[in-house]
Amino acid sequence: MTDPRAEIQKIKEDIRRLEELRQSGALPPDLADVSIAALKSKLPIYQAELQGAGAIAQGDGAKAVGKGGVLVGDHFQGNIYVGEQPENDEQALMIFRRMVMQTTSSMPLRGVDVGASDATQSKNTIGLANVYVDLDTTTRTLREKEELSHIQGKEENSLSYESVIRETKPISLLQAVSANRSSVILGDPGSGKSTFVNFLAYCLAAHTLEPTSGWLKHLQGWKEEDADLLPVVVILRDFARAYADALPQKVEVSHIWNFIEDRLKAQNLESAIKPLRAALEAGKAILLFDGLDEVPTEKQRIFVRDAVRVFIKRYDQCRYLVTCRVLSYQPPAHGKPDLRLDELSSFEIAEFDDEKISRFVEAWYSELARLGTVKTEDREALTAKLGEAVQRSDLRRLSSNPLLLTVMALVHTHKGRLPDARALLYEETIEILLWRWEQIKLGGQDDSPRLRQYLMEAGRTDLDLKRFLREIAYQAHSATKPDEKNEALADIDEHSLIKSLSALKRDDQNPDGDWNWARRIVDLMKLRAGLLLERQPGIFTFPHRTFQEYLAGAHLASQNNFARCAVELTPQKALWREVILYAVGKLVYVAEDLDKPLALVAELCPEKGIDTDLAWGQAWLAGDVLQEIGVNRVSDSAFGRDLLCRVQSRLTDLIKKGKLAPRERNHAGNTLSTLGDLRFNPDLWHLPADETLGFTLIPAGKFLMGNNDRDDEKPQHEVPLPDFWMARYPVTVAQFRAFTEATKYSFEYWKYNNTATHPVVAVTWYEALKYTQWLDKELRQHAERQIQSGVKNSLWQGLAEGKLRVSLPSEAEWEKSARGGSPLRSIPEGRLLGDGQGGEVYPWQGGFDPDKANTSETKIGDPSVVGCFPAGASPYGLLDMSGNVWEWTRSVYKKYPYQPGDGREEIQSKDARVLRGGSFFSEASIARCAFRRRGNPVGRLRSFGFRVVVVSPALPSRRL
To answer: What's the predicted TM-score (pTM) here?
Structure first.
């Protein structure tokens, strides 16, 4: 019988010899690391065989046994199985599922308290299932009829009715994955992609092992027939690493399978290989491919994409999920390969709304009370305090990101407060992750924290360690450059970590650095540190890529030529954008340095811009840098004010000229809205800054109204209209706020309206009409001042003389403004595509184009900045007539032909009103010029907005 003690001694000796060969250079580091990791994985097996009085316990929660006993407990050390070998395939899969639960059960962040950051006290880790909050997608679906409560007969004085009726609801992420056999989940950094993968894997594994424990209740919407699927998590950066030295010439199904098989062997789960393969063949597995965006080079990304593709094709009865960052899953630039799996359905994760934020905060402190980290009697007060803090105006936009919300909860737990900026949040979190566990008393007479002892031994302090971590993070992030030839993922191998760390302790005896000293620190990190985690033997990583980005940004901020270094990184915008912004935050809020960030803005947005995608993208980044600094701080200096004006002008041009892709253009528009959008005049109710305040003359004449293809649009017919003036854009949030502030009108739905240049939404028809009545009064006075100053314009003259009046447009006025007038060309019955300006289906000529309107095809998923789609302008130059938000008209919903004298323009009617134009969630077939929608006048939906018209003859003067 094999003596386990002898085997352990032999393995340790072999490891020592390999380390010596690696240090001397006789053995390549990569080969040495693989060999050492394989030997280390065998140690727990022989250690577990020790019997008698010398029995030891290994692994999280493992229990030691005496002579003649069997090992009980979890039977795992980290991700290595150390228990007895199974007797059959069923037991092998049970052990595999236990391993899945073991590796996915807890939150990835450590450092919440002493126990939670200590790998030897894992009972105190935060249970993922206890704090997980269901994620939604940005894809929306119509609510069931019973979910819609259209309010009838409400009078004006009942408009405070407490409800926001929303015609649609988001599809949950779980529903999306359950409904599609293969799907790609997209999300921003920290949006919860990997957390969702772990949660789904954990619940599926737990349900099969404990079918009566109610685990499926955690998976609302998951199909019952898929409840027993075997979850297999594949980290795609690890898969890419396995083929880093030489990519195969031809992609085979065996590539992914061999990787899975090798990992099972390394985890001492070789017995699960055969039954897992059988599960694949039977279609009884779900493959969770996590982190497509973390594959570093273009060649590797193509290989991984194709390997996943052939694997899905081979085992086509299984289920598949792939995760990726949004900006890494975009249509390819001209001449570039398409790195997407575009045959798979894709869904984007939505941000946390207020309800989800509240649920997380409550779950967070409930879990900490369960763990004993906080007192049970303090839980309710702490929950309320954190809930209030994360709703602060300066932090609300951060708390919608699940990772940043977790960071805030982490800081709040230990500090009892939250700082004012995300850079400060990360600084305080890093302090917690590095030092919180150092409060443990290590026994004996020495009460000094061990890590600080090591640093003092080298004549170093905390500052030196943090500087080292920043440099390591920057190097790891730099290794993901697409043009990098050598394999270097965003992971840090132990050899490189020790080599770099050893440089902190140089002396006469160790001129190249003290490797033994560095090893002691790394060994300590393995046990306790929360900022660098040993994800697998010999491989370290940060708790989340966002921490790596922040630390890389902190390193970038320390460079003397910061501005030039940052600009050189901008061509790889998806990789470095957040790093640069973190660097700016570090400079502004930690170093209190405004000069370097302002110098960066000057580099990114020179006085004379050029017309390239890179230059426009740099201008957008310049705007985000100013936003990170804060407009008030920027305006403190003449240089800052000049830069602000320059960036505002450049971003205004970006919007007007339709530069960049639609999603990026909208993001740039949001940035411009924060900085101050030059298209609008804040002194004149935030209306457009031109001679007519954005009103465009629509000349008198006939036009074709309707469409012969749909019953409620038939018959297509000619409608004559007099001159009128239509607003260029829908009414914006800022414009509507000017009305509510001037009239003291109580509007409770600002949470749907938090960007000044977005169209205002969640307004009823009555509220839209009230706005027009207020604006009519204001514009009449403005018109009189214009006439007195000598301005000659028929708009101001008509308003001043009472011949024109501000109102909501009739649906005839709306449709003519959208599709144009003469020449008239009829649309034959059965055709949707028009021919000629007078009969266009959309405001532009030709078929639908997602670059011309914010609809579901554009995949923005929310209202966008008005005017963000200049290529979709109507023949009269009006914008957003297709998509973005539905627009109220003053017309009552009646059948065609359109006859203005049949009561449909009666303001006093309480019947349903017509909405036009479609919205951000509408399909192209709905966002047509002729499409009509019925709306209850007191309905209040997130997709309902309006625009105004100045029209003659004047409407009846009777007010509501």
So the answer is: 0.69
